[in-house]
Amino acid sequence: MSQRLSISATIFFVLTLSLGLYFAFAAVQGPSGILRRIQVEAETAELAAERDRLRAEVDRMQNLTRRLSDDFLDLDLLDEQAREVLGVVRADEIILR
Predict the structure, then answer these.
(1) What pLDDT sits at residue 1?
(2) How far apart are alpha carbons 47 and 43 in whole angstroms?
(3) What is the pLDDT along the chain (97 residues), one digit of tens a residue?
(4) Sign of torsion, CA 11 12 14 15?
(5) What's the rounded Cα separation, in Å, for the pair 27 and 31?
(6) Three-class secondary structure of residue 78 per DSSP
(7) Could you tell me if 58 and 51 are in contact, meaning their C-beta atoms sit under 8 angstroms apart?
(8) Contact 81, 68 (CB under 8 A)
(9) How far apart are CA 73 and CA 39, in angstroms?
(10) Bridge partners of 53?
């Protein structure tokens, strides 16, 4: 003896299955889904690395600026910068390229 589902039970089953599939798809692919979260976390890590690199560059530039300021003058750095900008070399120096 086989029993058949009534039309209303079949419609309920199909509707429930459809909604379940829709919510599962939205949980994975949607704007707040798992894949978007992974993408945002990767972008966050990339931007944090860029921020750290820029902070290190700013610290280096602040150090160089302080070393060439009127209050604290690093003569070796001043000599290095002048040689680089002007292309000056002492007679007793050998340049390797």
Answers:
(1) 43
(2) 6
(3) 446 778 888 899 999 999 999 999 888 888 888 888 999 999 999 999 999 999 999 999 999 888 888 788 888 888 888 888 888 787 787 777 7
(4) positive
(5) 9
(6) helix
(7) no
(8) yes
(9) 48
(10) none
CA-CA distance, 32 to 24, in Å (whole number)? 12
d(CA 78, CA 85): 11
In the block, residue with structure tokens 């002492």 = 90
Single out the residue of 60, 80, 77 nearest to residue 69, CA to CA. Answer: 77
Tokens at residue 3, please?
């029993």
Cβ partners under 8 Å of residue 83, min gap 6:
89
- Provide the CB-side half-sphere exposure for 37 (13 A, CA): 6
Q: What's the pTM?
A: 0.56
